[in-house]
Amino acid sequence: MPHPTRKPDMTTTTLSRRLTLGVLCACALALPLAAQAKPATLEVSGEGQVQIVPDRAGLNATLWEKTPLRDEGESAAPGELEQARSALERRMSQLIDTLVAAGVARERIHAGSISIQPEMLYASSDGQPNRSRISVERPIQLDIEQLDRLPTVLEALTQAGVDRLDGVSYDVADRGAVEDRALAAAVARAEGKARAIAASLSLELGPVLEAVEGEAPHFQPRMMAMAESRAADAVDYNPGEIGVEARIILRYALEE
């Protein structure tokens, strides 16, 4: 007796077709994904430093006048503060004239604002009252563009009796050019490292894909402290050298 012919299951056929199409689509997608794989790259950093002789200097000094000492709680005499302020302004005016005569351009002399602050001198033994006074101060800043004038300027400051001289800071006028040299040295160092690494791995160094400056070039202005004696002819005026540092990060393509 012949067996009846079994009709195909439509659900099974449809599912089979879907699975087949899914596998084909997955294979088709895998090919472009493999083709789009990221190329091999190499990232290196380089540091560069430039030493340069400074060609300019900066000076910071302060003048002050103080009212007479009085016992704590005692009122100041009328006009004492105004007298101190007037004496300070007179000294500052004379100092500026002296500096101009010493060869400092007037536009390179910057006199700051007056500050007024109380001072307390505490008694060193029992039974003695604390004493107080008022200090009137004014700072002055100088830009020296000719270093050979520095000894003369310092002599003028000491003879004028400045109350505080913070020392000399050396610098260079064209910072941009010096920073560019430091960056160029950093790039050369990074490129040398990249070539050495690629050669050791038997790979060909491709083009630079990205360059990132690590940080702004770092200037290291040189400071010169003043001698305790404050004698201008006893100070060593040799400015030495200023160091400028830079850092760069380069990313290269690698080719087998």
UniProtKB/TrEMBL annotation:
Keyword Protease: no
InterPro entries: 26kDa_periplasmic_antigen (IPR052022), SIMPL/DUF541 (IPR007497)
Keyword Signal: yes
Keywords, comma-separated and alphabetical: Signal
Pfam families, per the entry: SIMPL (PF04402)
GO BP: DNA damage response
Extent of the signal sequence: 1-37
Top-rank taxon: Bacteria
UniProt xrefs under PANTHER family: PERIPLASMIC IMMUNOGENIC PROTEIN, SLR1258 PROTEIN
Name under which the protein is recorded: SIMPL domain-containing protein
Organism: Halotalea alkalilenta
